[in-house]
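Help! Submission page says 'invalid entity' but I think these are all valid:
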Amino acid sequence: MSNIYHLLSERLPLLRRGLGGGACSFSIGGIHPEDNKLAANSPLQALPPEGTASIFLGQHIGAPAEAIVSKGERVKTGQLIAKASGWVSADIHSSVSGTVVAVEPVADLSGIRQPAITIQVEGDEWLETIDRSPEIIREIPSDSAVIIKKIAAAGIVGLGGAAFPTHVKLSPPPGKKAGILIINAAECEPFLTSDHRVMLEFGEQALIGALLLKQALHASKAFIGIESNKPDAIRELQKIIRERGYELQVVRLKKRYPQGGEKQLIDAVTHRRVPSMGLPADVGVAVQNVGTALAVYEAVQKHKPLIENSITITGKNLPQQINALVRLGTPLSRLAALAGGIPAGTGKIVCGGPMMGKAIVNMDAPTTKVTSALLFIPHGEAQRRKASNCIRCAKCVQACPMGLEPYLLIKLTQRSRYDELRANRMSDCIECGCCLYSCPAHIPLLDYIRMGKGELKSSKLKVENYPTDGHRL
Amino acid sequence: MQTIILTVVTLTALGAILAAALYMVAQRFRTEEDPRIDEVAALLPGANCGGCGFAGCRALAEAVVKSETMDNLYCPVGGSEVMQQVAACVGRTVEAREPMIAVVRCAGACSLRPPTSLYDGAASCRIEAALYKGETDCLYGCSGHGDCERACLFGALRIDAATGLPVVDEEKCTACGACVKACPKRIIELRKKGPKGCRVFVSCVNKDKGNVARKACKAACIACAKCSKACAFGAIAIEENIAYIDFTVCRLCRKCAAECPTGAIRVNGEWRMENGLAPSPLNFNP
């Protein structure tokens, strides 16, 4: 039955859309967590710079940038302070004006010290070349090389979470062309609302950013995928598209996690499947986050580098739900103070969403280009439940949006059987956490998978005869 | 009656024919095995721990018989005594080796290394080390989930509830090295057992600068080099902000232990009580 459904839906996207209640969705796995978009109605507020800002040199995938300023030097907001040290790397600009006080490692949110530039904030003096007027510039440069160059010069990285340098993503390998651009505005993670607010408040700018990305890729079509729990954003963008006659199309997506996963989004919008270990360019698609689109607009039209991003500060116990425009390198503790301090009974503070975010160990850590949220989880919900033995119910298999068998992967990881892990497509795991969410035995599946992926990657590490821990499989 | 006789005769004949066939097949496909392999295997302890690097005791016995020399063939469980007998059995000689023992190079007990966060993931050192910097500010210290305890086939290691650190049972440890492999932070090391169990070693592997290390743990090696200056035999080297005592050179004079300001150098792995560095019972409420 499901085969017939898939066969038909491959041919007839409309039928599939009809079966999915009018909205598109990816075809396998997924879960339905409560969306808890508590901060959806809080407008973005700008957080003025204050105190010190520590800006990490490695905020992106690839080689860390090289600092070009030294201690004691004065910098302006938007000034280049670290240069990309290779093709897959990104420039880093000062998010504040003031004096460089240190070029030394600073503890990140896990407490691990990473090289960073620390600046003492003095006033807020911007670089003269940056256009700070609210006027919207709609003319789009026709030369894609110019757009890509400006994007690279602004140090833009994928703001969806992966932090992959955008200029690299816009230059697909020779022989591959991305004919379709998808703007990822699904924001499927519960609690997160920063992209939602960007669409409502900077909708037109983000759409122009999307057109710039489309031009840079020479794409023939561009879609904007938005989950159906943001009807106001869908309406707003559709209205702008109609009024301005932009060649963009809004696609309503079913509310289902991980709808905003790159491969899931491609499946939902185009019904194309990215092959195992493949890239979206293999199926002629490029995906960019809506926040990235806004950053691209600002970089190309306003000459403003990536120095701030929108961050949701939320939690069930928090008196105020906040969406803020925060300069890079602002200490996380300042964000907590903005929302009225860490509420009593907080069990865990997470950077990012509840599904894929990372628990914070060090609240003095600065924000980075991809910090999307600060989430306060109350004590009762923060604790993991005691793990028991796997009963082979296969709920994890059912939930996995990549079609993997998580229970098998962790068993193989425990026994360090790397060849079999490769055969079972371990590296395809997107670490979305659906398996962990659906496991009735509360087995820490994702912990094992993350470790296994790391071990699989580092060929140097040869571990033999590792003991298994208490969870018998 | 006739039926019974017929049955007995038929079955006897069938049995004889099949026995002859089996005998012929066995002769035809017989593999010659050196009888010494059995002899050597009988001498080995039979723990099948893999400490020698082979799959089990019999695999080591085969390797011993096949090999020309005794290089790289050593049963840590049986030790020199067993290896002498094995060498005699195959008509070779072997130099006596000093017995070894596993030592835990971390003195970061809970009271000396204050926890700064709480780890809630899978109870495995291997996972914690892969995902996270640990519950304290020391990135290098023992995480105490007991991967070493589970790896030990001889029950020689256990995690002390008071200190959160593994303790090696001198009687039971065979120096097979399973715990060394199991520790993702490379804290456990095999060292010479020493006369009357006397060992001097640096119980710290923190490569951070002295001030950072000290802030994270009161018992950290801060690479002050007092020990290397005190050592008359040049056994102590300082590399990457950490002192290391070469046990092949060390004469166990224990001058370095007296000099060490943090108590990171421990004799026999015992705590130095006079510094107030002895561990107090675990007291950390999440």
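Support: the input was valid. A stray whitespace character was the problem, and the output above is from the cleaned input. Residues 203-217 of chain A form the longest helix (15 residues).
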